[in-house]
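Table S2 (text version). Query chain:
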Amino acid sequence: MHSKQRLTEQRLARVLDQRIRPAVHALTAPLDIAIWNVPGEPVPVADGLAAPYEPVTLGHRWGPPWTTSWFRISGRVPAEWAGRRVEAVVDIGFNFTGAGFSSEGLVYRTDGTVVKALNPRNAYIPVADPAVGGEEFTYYVEAAANPNLNDSHVPTRTGDRPS
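Corresponding structure-token output:
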């Protein structure tokens, strides 16, 4: 019997990418995103929450390797989403080869309490369940720009923190 493992895996990947993933978060709404690049780290959470943020747009390139930036993410749940579970999907520049060796984040509420971690396989923030519709929300993400060092076992230019 001939092995068709590669063909089967390609078909599964296509169904996952074209049908399943788009159905998980089928509805979208814009978010307001702002950033604060930490001049030294670590910083207390209170400093991250009170920092001077600058607006950025989707696709903004942030932080060289081994640095930290804080993001402020705000939005409003559309009224027509009432009764639904609402999540903010946040990709801070993940490398999707695994859960580690990539950028990572820790999500905070405006009062400084922790919500959850963000990583390539867990990139959502719970907003409402169920939503009333019209809720405004703000979260802060302390994001670490960790380079992927998992590709080889030789020294890299991103292997050390800048001095």
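Notes on Table S2: The CA atoms of residues 86 and 143 lie 22 Å apart. Helices lie at 5-24, 45-50.
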